[in-house]
What we know:
Chain B: Its cofactor is pyridoxal 5'-phosphate. The structure holds two protein chains of two kinds. Chain A has 15 helices and twelve strands. By secondary structure, chain A is of the alpha/beta class. In chain A, the strands form two sheets. In chain A, strands 1-7-6-5-4-2-3 form a seven-stranded mixed β-sheet, sandwiched between helices. In chain A, strands 8-9-12-11-10 form a five-stranded mixed β-sheet. The longest helix of chain A is centred in the last third of the chain and has 20 residues, at 249-268. The termini of chain A are far apart. Chain B is an alpha/beta fold. Chain B contains 13 helices and twelve strands. Chain B has helices at residues 7-13, 54-67, 78-86, 103-116, 128-132, 157-166, 179-182, 217-230, 236-246, 249-268, 295-301, 331-336, 353-370; strands at 71-75, 94-98, 119-123, 139-145, 170-174, 192-196, 210-214, 273-277, 284-289, 306-307, 317-319, 343-347. In chain B, the strands form two sheets. Chain B has a seven-stranded mixed β-sheet with strand order 1-7-6-5-4-2-3, with helices on both faces. Chains A and B meet through helix 2 of A and loops of B.
Amino acid sequence: MTQHIETALIHAGVRDGFANKKGAVNVPMYLSSTFHQESIDEFGEYDYARSGNPTRDALEKAIAELEGGVRGHAFASGIAAVTATLMLLSQGDHIVITEDVYGGTYRFVTKVLPRFGITHTFVDFTDLAAIEAAITPATKLLFLETPSNPTLGITDIRGVVALAKQYNCLTFLDNTFMTPLHQRPLELGVDVVIHSATKFLSGHSDIIAGLTVTADEQLGNDLYFIQNSFGNILGVQDSFTLLQNMKTTDVRFSRSSESAQKIAEFLDADPLVEQVYYPGLASHPGYDIHHSQCTSSGAVLSFRLPTYEKAKALVEAMKIPVFAVSLGGVESILSYPAKMSHASMEPEERAKRGITEGLLRFSVGLEHVDDLIADFAQALVIAAKA
Amino acid sequence: MTNNRSIETKLVQLGNLSDPSTGAVNPPIYLSTAYKHTGIGESTGFDYTRTKNPTRAILEAGIADLEGGDAGFACSSGMAAIQLVLSLFKPGEELIVPDDLYGGTYRLFNFFKETYNIKPVYSKFESVEQVESLINENTRAIFIETPTNPLMQEFDLATYAELAHKHNAWLIVDNTFYTPYFQRPIEIGADIVLHSATKYIGGHNDVLAGLVVSKGAELSERIGFIHNGSGMVLGAMDSWLLIRGLKTMHLRLKQHDANAKAIAAYLEQEELVTDVLYTGQGGMLSFRLQKAEWVDAFLRNMKLITFAESLGGVESFITYPATQTHADMPYEERVERGVCDRLLRFSVGIEEAEDLIADLQQVFDTLRKEA
């Protein structure tokens, strides 16, 4: 019996194994760094908690099931998940990567990977021809993020996968904004899915975590080797918290994305707002592609005000949202990408990507949407005068 | 086999090899409220976490073993443990209790007296005869803290166990100050031992918990019924923290004990101190300053030692019983019991003793200058 993902969210953590021995409805937290072995020549499933821990295992199996993949791995942060997957590359390899990528990924690709002789080319991933043009004989990986952060650019996943197959490259996709509920990259042929689980999967602005899922066993083993050798694993308490929080991902995401649609429409109608970036708006250039590969428009939107002064005035006038980095929490979070998520990007690079001084990103939480819209309405009046 | 092991080994090994399916050296934390039944009338032994939780069960079996009792019960606080024990009594029944006891216990006893007519009968416990003279047909227990809080009086448990049993009553002992490392009351006749496990058992000033250990199947069953029925149970996370605390309890207590001995000796020779109340064992002591008006300056001038309520943690705490632990006791009664306004209680931590003494030294030097 194939279950809906909404059902799997609730049950995937306790499908098998130890939890059922006592019948516990939740996986126990194994705060044990080491495991007793019964015999000198036959080790049990667990020996040392970096290499494997029953609680983390339950999480890794759950995310693999949710993404429809073969193997899951849990990491200490979203960026630890990104960097672990990039360590699958070797000296001399080349990456073609979306220019609209998260600032932390950008920093690692531009500052760290070159030291290992791994080169990169940033490309506008909404343009398949540009991607193909950037592919060289050394290219081993196409790295996608869709929708992208913070300008919600949409990449045609099927198109990129076709290119990758043609040129014998791997594809990695950061699925943080959509979650496995609404975008199923492995089913579209992607090789590795990456999550900053800190965001919608955990959803309570409480833990830092990263998850990956591989489409095949070999990549899973290779990534396990990196995870175990680097030791960038997720701790037990965070693994447990994440498993618990994932159970409400669907209800949280559904409510937040419903509200996001209304807020995007409201902002779109406001004369002060120059542009709204949200794939739920028919005017979004990636609207058709997005809805051909996703079942939700998501819960994050960005919008552009004319000036830094107006953005600053709006931020200071907003009463409900937290003004902070990060996204995907129960509370709405307003961010200023130029100085937050993309601060590690050079100003000219930011400008190229549309991350202007007037750009704000809004992660829609679970507050009542009318309260959020009223808050925007009053803040926009103040910003208009600034 | 385990019963032949020394307490140090039992402490360290608590929970090890409890999970053969993984071999986990530390028991897992079961944050699961409910447990699946395979069929009607078929249980894994766990149904609902208030009734029994796998993590809490390890702690409860552990403390029962350490105290030499038959069953252990983990509660949400030390006071919850006392409430659990007091729930054994019926209206009209009496407990004989030494005058000196923790203020929170005193407050709860008063509540039980006023609300349920379950009466504490206070006594100075000057002699067995004097205590026996208070026993009547309603007496159901002798309830003792030993050493007492904060006056550090010790009682001969074997004698009072014999007295209680002669009159068909229980001896209940609050073993918070000594822990089973220094004193195992059930082995010398007590029926119930209780702990504020917040103190030496947790040991890190991080978790609030109480433990009860009982002797005998019938008594254990009665306590278990109330523990589940009233639900003052300890959570799985906190149970795990206590298990972890127990693994170093013997090392901590050795250091608490050595430090307290050094500090007691130091205070004995300090002229601004009139009395040092120390049993010669454990990490708790009390002392009286010459003048009550020095107390405020004393507490304000401490640089290393923390002025705080509670005890038994790795950090040194000095408490002012008059306004903290015994704030709920009427003034006359408090002074009559010896908890005067010059009394300070010292929970000696496991810092280097020389540093603690240096801190006391500079406080006394300041007092001398100001005096």
